[in-house]
Amino acid sequence: MISVFIEEEDKHLSFKTLTSGSPKHKTLLMETSPALRIRSLKKAYYSKVVLNNIDLEIEPGQIIGYIGPNGAGKSTTLRILGGLDFAFDGEVEVLGMDVKKNPLEVKARIGFLPEQAALYEQLTPIEFYELVGGLHKLPWAKVESRARQLENYLQLSYNRNQRMETFSKGMRQKVLLTSTLLHDPDLILLDEPLDGLDANTVIRVKNLLGQLAEEGKTIFYSSHIMDVVERISHRIILLNGGHIVANGSFAELQRKAKQGNLESLFAELTGGVTDSSLPRFQLDRDE
Q1: Pick from 227, 179, 174, 221: which is nearest to 196 by CA?
Q2: Which of 25, 109, 114, 133 shows its CA 20 to 30 Å from the CA of 261?
């Protein structure tokens, strides 16, 4: 049993940093089902098997760090969970719904930030938020209010009529993060969400994800930044060769590792190398 807070009149962005005033809430106790349930998931690109009999169950309110070498199938998994790829075998349930049978219902309740997300650069951020909010049938006043709150938290500033084609990579990433959270999703899928962000914003995003998890949101994200994964994840799932080779909290994985940090465990389980074992690089230069 968990406590779920629901606003009396309307659902809202409930994490404390983004709310203003003191809205009244009522607490409902309800049985929870897994936020994600995957059974015997298989995915292949032609003859190359990318995901091979993946079984996974994620409870609500967890931050899941999903890691693995390049080409391990992390982004493919996220696309399947986000309802963008139905060419797979097995069962995938998102928030209690079959992702193949209920794709629109799933998309209405998730926020998905792909690694290479499309951004309409000829638009201003406000125009882009209006587009995203319209897809989720949000009233304009709510879109504008939530966008302003999220932008303020992420410290994104620009001239109101400035088109995004003039934005830096970090500014564009902040716009994408804002649009991903605009409709207050229950499940948040993030593929390299910290890409292009400065150190101050990374701290803010890590804090924000923690707050969202405290409120019962589920965050499933992929990243190659091992120290961030190590610090904020409740569970870490390591994918290699189409299989899950590690699944647990950092403390649990650390007890099984020969060395103490996640980077070393990653190298150990994926056949990689650590800094200490790398040979010195010598470029063949002209005499």
Answers
A1: 174
A2: 114
Tracing tokens 């709310």 back to the chain, one arrives at: 19
Instruction: Give the pairing type, strands 89-94 and 63-67.
Output: unpaired
Contact 18, 149 (CB under 8 A): yes
| Distance linking the first and last C-alpha atoms of the chain | 72
Query: Hunting for tokens 């000829």 — which residue is that?
Result: 122
> What would the pLDDT profile of 102-143 be if each residue is shown by its tens digit?
999 999 999 999 998 888 999 999 999 999 999 999 999 999
The pair of structure tokens assigned to 81 is 């969970």
Q: In this structure, what are the phi and psi dihedrals at residue 187, rounded to the nearest 5 degrees? A: -125, 130
**For 215-230, how does the pLDDT look when each residue is reduced to its tens digit (9 = 90+)?**
999 999 999 888 899 8
pTM summary value: 0.84
Under 8 Å between Cβ of 51 and 76: yes
The CB density around residue 94, as the number of other CB atoms within 10 Å, is: 29
- Paired sense of beta strands 89-94 and 36-45, if any: antiparallel
The phi, psi pair for 226, rounded to 5°, reads -65, -35
